[in-house]
């Protein structure tokens, strides 16, 4: 069974407040209707790939709540509720608690420091945690301890300076291969993995998402799509133009896992 054979996902419908989402550089607010359309296309792509999607209601009080990935880590046998580093996002985890309790037999809670799911790259052998402005050294260490409790090995690495999250710059393409920006690859953070580097000026393509036998990537990066196609991957380009205005890519809009008793 492939590591990416996800059959369950949690997403959250964008609230009208999504136009006020956090962003490092203000290139204008995203258009709400277009965010809705990008989100709907993303959910449809997940469903077409065989994933059963649970859609949570919008949260007006939390403009970035659409980015559910940052609130938790989910695995087949357990979940971990995180503590986002962005002050305006801290309350999103409480809103996720009941959903996790309902879907997972075991739910652990990060109690110290901060960590966001965008800084966590899960692989079959270990879970990489990138320290960043959102994930503190203390949070990363606490997360390593929680991962050990559920039988997983956590390794702390450093997210590239000035980059929002570790996974802004990398994603799993298959069990042995990581799509990675040159600036992250330079630090050699993933020993033992084969790296495919994003082409120049297409660093944003690194936040791809492998679901089943497809790799979702942003439609804004055609050279990356071509590169991955030539490497033998089945590429599914998706529009991310509006959510990119609030610093988001493809992994951030879902929590995904394989439920072994589901099918
Ligand atoms: C934020 O700054 O928190 C949101 N505007 C974007 C979060 C993207 N999250 C992710 O890629 N995991």
From TrEMBL:
- Alphabetical GO biological process terms: arginine metabolic process; citrulline metabolic process; positive regulation of nitric oxide biosynthetic process
Keyword Ligase assigned to the entry: answer is no
Q: Name one GO molecular function term.
A: amino acid binding
Report the superkingdom from the record. Answer: Bacteria
Keyword Hydrolase appears in the UniProt entry: yes
Keywords, sorted A to Z: Hydrolase
Q: Which residues bind substrate?
A: 22, 64, 69-70, 89, 134, 246
Q: What residues make up the catalytic site?
A: 165, 252
Record's SUPFAM superfamilies?
Pentein
Q: Which family does it belong to?
A: Belongs to the DDAH family.
Q: What name goes with this protein?
A: Dimethylarginine dimethylaminohydrolase
Q: Which organism is it from?
A: Candidatus Viadribacter manganicus
